Structure prediction request, 114 residues.
Amino acid sequence: MLKNNSIYNEIGQLLFNIAPDGAKTVIMKAELSPEGDHCKCQFDYINKSNDIKRFLGGSRANRDMLDYLVKLRQYSIDNNLTNGLPAWVGCIVTVDIENAKIDIEFKYEPFIER
Prediction:
């Protein structure tokens, strides 16, 4: 089983790799299905002018991200990080490209607008 830091690194690396030219920050919002068989991802970036732009991650990135998020949620469950509560349903991942830092905020209710 992967450690959660390893999964965080994989998520960060994936977002770094798909970041558009000129991106200084990448923000991904994701919601996982309860079964973990699909997820909804929204990708945005902040450019050097501090404009927020949306971009497509691509089918490969979406598929890989699904795998990483399922592993991360399962890690939370397997290691009792939920404290007996339901596991998170989504997250907002922010990658600071310039400083090589990642932040993950977990969400416990659906939050991406339809």
Observations:
- The chain has two helices and five strands.
